[in-house]
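HOLO CASE FILE
Compound: calcium ion
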Amino acid sequence: MKLLKKIIALFLAAASAAAPSLCLRLNMPRVPRGQALDLSQFTMTWNDEFDGDTLDTSKWGFTWWETMRKGGYWHEDMVSVRDGNLVIRAEYLDEPLENRYYEQWHDKIDFDPYKPGYYTGEVNTRGKFEQCYGYFETRCILPAATGLWSAFWMMNEGVYQIDGFGDDGTEVDVFESMYYKDHWRGVDAVIGGIHYDNYGPDSKGDSIGKFFLANDPYTEYNTYGLEWNPDEYIFYINGVECDRLSTGGVSDNPEHLILSVEIAGKDGVAYADRHGVDKITKTPEKNWPAEFKVDYVRVYQYNAYL
Ligand SMILES: [Ca+2]
Ligand SMILES: [Ca+2]
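Model generated. Tokens follow.
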């Protein structure tokens, strides 16, 4: 059980992590560097096209022990596969969903109880698939409502090791969205970045800044990709390089993949400010419920490393 407790502690720490807190360049819109992705130097090693009508649990799992997440709740029922997409739904529920793991685990895990509130979800490949270096891409439509934070990101346990460097493990946010109709910070921009050395006072990181897309990310499919090699992380949107980072040293450890939606807020209560979900009502005509639709996730390795 020691390992389980460690895992839980790690992910509770992650729960309180404000992923973009170190994005010092957030208010500086960036111009893409423009280099085109060269997929010919890679071979696909793993993918999910989300065909069929159920999630492939040989590839994906849930962080089921983390019931409360920022301003809402995560529950696996908010995740489905439909029309060739993974769909992560975000919705206000007056009736809390059931914790299916409570009966078996409540004496070992201090679950936050599900309450009426905003529900959404995540899937990850922890313990099922991880890779060091390569190219990682998703094609998706972002959930269109204020206060929602969708992301494609990568993690490993080394992220929590504080040693001044990121080579032991770095959270890599291939893209994050939290600017839906946010005129102050930039309408419909997405960001990317890295975080390492845990999420406390020693936390470090860097950001590629924010990028605006030619195609509306909330109504059209776009691809968000990360090239990762021993020297740098290179971020792409629609196959065009946005920027590259190597701050703190590049992770040389395998990392797993995460697709998630979070509700802006704290302790299960959504923020009511201009960035928060409660700024708008929870009625369907205001884009609720909202859906994060993911057409695919594809992972490649450099041919030279195969
Ligand atoms: Ca470190
Ligand atoms: Ca698909």
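CASE NOTES: The longest strand covers residues 290-302. Confidence is low (pLDDT under 50) at residues 9-27.
CLOSED: yes
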